[in-house]
Design brief:
Elements (H helix, E strand, L loop, with lengths): L6 E6 L3 H11 L4 E7 L3 H11 L4 E2 L2 H5 L6 E4 L6 H10 L3 E5 L6 H14 L3 E4 L6 H11 L5 E9 L19 H17 L3 E8 L11 E8 L4 E7 L7 E8 L2 E6 L2 E4 L16 H15 L7 H22 L2
Parallel strand pairs: 1-2, 1-4, 2-3, 4-5, 5-6, 7-10
Antiparallel strand pairs: 7-11, 8-9, 9-10, 11-12, 12-13
Length: 324
């Protein structure tokens, strides 16, 4: 594929994150979103009309059989990610899968094997790699101007009933470890440029209806000596979101999504870090560029797989503790 060719993308998932990707893809030159598939044909058609997408279709199989689809962005429920990633690669389509790639290490490894077998572009939505705030810190680290000593992270939501980001009932259950911790586990290794050599986790009681732990604490140590402390909760009644405190030898920085401030709450201008302030857009731009250039993308399946190995080890540790 040459730089001049239009990249034709189908979107799977007409929910909150599907809308984010639709908006981001509209801002990328030479990209056409040709189709969307949602949980029903009616909802797919409604989403297509709202977002200016070519057509709404009933099934992912229909998308994968289409001649006007080069690649697929999966913004579907977590339990479907691995199966749909394998289906896209099997159909010869490049694929970007929203985080997490899978809910088990075996499924994540199967996706990597399929990517290696096909040679297609396959990346995962580890958005923190792309947020300008985290890119700014990473550049200082890579320049040798900043040595990270501790990353302190709070991932807090108020989700005592099964609702999505739009406050609508959800047919599947989100997970603190395999979804929300994945962002930080991958970011910590990415920022330090060092493998995670030690990982510990404890969790609170399992919710009687949702069947998941609502509170969790994770500790990580990288091979270069840096540590990470991660607190996660679905019980927190505001403020909501994820907040990162970088503690280093030449400063402290707080990243809140695409914004960055010093430890004294002084704003840092990160508007010049990349071509956009939207992490989702930057993630989608990388996907498109990798397809056009025939190269491995940042946040490829191969690059993020160590994160899923760590998550699997933490899951095994939590399971053993629950039976002790």
């Amino acid at each position: 594929m040459t730089d001049q060719q239009t990249v034709r993308i189908a979107l799977a998932g007409g929910g909150a994150f599907g809308a984010k990707h639709a908006a981001a893809l509209r801002r990328i030159e030479g990209v056409e979103v040709t189709a969307v598939v949602s949980d029903t044909l009616d909802s797919a058609r409604k989403f297509a009309a709202e977002q200016g997408i070519g057509r709404g279709v009933a099934t992912l199989d229909e998308v994968l059989a289409a001649d006007d689809v080069d690649a697929v962005v999966l913004a579907t429920p977590t339990p479907l990610h691995a199966e749909q990633t394998l289906a896209c690669l099997g159909a010869g389509k490049h694929v970007q899968t929203e985080i997490p790639l899978a809910a088990s290490l075996a499924d994540a490894e199967a996706c990597l094997a399929a990517q290696q077998r096909t040679g297609l572009v396959a990346m995962v939505g580890h958005t923190r790699r792309f947020n300008p705030s985290h890119q700014w810190v990473r550049r200082r680290i890579q320049a040798g101007e900043y040595h990270l000593q501790q990353l302190d992270v709070q991932t807090y939501f108020f989700r005592r009933s099964n609702l999505n980001a739009l406050g609508q009932p959800r047919s599947w259950t989100d997970h603190l470890l395999w979804h929300h911790a994945a962002h930080t586990v991958d970011l910590f290794a990415h920022q330090t440029g060092s493998s995670i050599v030690q990982a510990n986790a404890i969790q609170g009681p399992v919710h009687p209806e949702l069947g998941i732990a609502m509170d969790m604490s994770v500790q990580l140590r990288a091979g270069n000596g840096a540590i990470c402390t991660l607190s996660l909760s679905f019980n927190n009644d505001g403020p909501l979101g994820t907040f990162f405190r970088y503690i280093g030898d030449t400063g402290t920085y707080l990243a809140r999504y695409d914004d960055l401030v010093t430890g004294e709450d002084e704003p840092i201008d990160v508007s010049g870090v990349d071509v956009s302030m939207d992490g989702i857009e930057l993630q989608d731009r990388e996907f498109v560029a990798a397809i056009r250039e025939g190269r491995e993308p940042n946040a490829s399946i191969a690059q993020v797989l160590p994160c899923y190995r760590t998550l699997a080890a933490l899951e095994a540790q939590l399971a053993a503790a629950s039976h002790a």
